[in-house]
Amino acid sequence: MLRLGSLAGLFAFVALGACARGGAADDGDATADQTDDDDDADPIDAPPRPDSPLPIDSPLPIDSPPPVDAATDAPNVQPDACVPGSTQFLTNPGFDTGPGTWQEVPITDPDGVPFPIVVTAPAQFPAQTGTYVAWLGGIAGIEVQEFFPITDEIYQIVGIAPGATGLTLSGYWAVDTAEAADGEATDDFTLEIRSTTGALLQQILVLNNTAQVNPAWTAFSVPITANIAGQNVRIRATSTNDLTLPTSFFLDSLSLTATTPCP
Ligand SMILES: [Ca+2]
Ligand SMILES: [Ca+2]
Hints:
Blueprint: H1 2-28, H2 34-41, H3 67-73, E1 85-88, E2 103-105, E3 118-120, E4 132-137, E5 150-159, E6 165-177, E7 188-195, E8 200-208, E9 218-223, E10 232-241, E11 247-260
Antiparallel strand pairs: 1-11, 2-5, 3-4, 4-11, 5-10, 6-9, 6-11, 7-8, 7-10
Bound molecules: calcium ion (2 copies).
């Protein structure tokens, strides 16, 4: 009841107000032209009548720039543009977590105790990265009472993604020998890719005692031409020392990468 009563009172008040405004305009400009009188009589804030023209300052839709024009002015940047990357397949490529997935076939001393291959780098020859390296050789046959060349080996089985392209094996090698600088090649080293059944797929490095660079790491990066995508392969290093004057062969900071193509 209160709401109905209040609404009725409001209608009565508005009706009175409208009459008062009309009466005041007629009374205040009785001699003016009737057309001007009508224009002047409209309050500034009166709502437009249904047939009234748009206010002068009303924004017209045609003035609004269409979205397509705005996009034309934007920089020509493609937010989803692909930048080719690379994928690295070796585990522990710098040897710095210890042997891990690297399998060692080491030289042993006369009591059968192995000389580990993944070791802390010797003080006189710091690691290329971290503290560990792969150290092959470094022992002459006669030191372990062998009367023929002695060998060791380290390898890791690596799964190469199907469709991998741009495969490259990179890293650093170093040679430190007791052989004469101008001596013959008597102690040897190879880094290669083999199948899991032992078949040679590609040689990456072939070194010997004459390759010594005192004392420095030498970078290498060799494209893999063997078709190994989608296969498990062995990344294998092996050394052979003859009876005397040992040669050490070091590896560090390896990587086996493929280019990651754009879709
Ligand atoms: Ca290392
Ligand atoms: Ca030797």
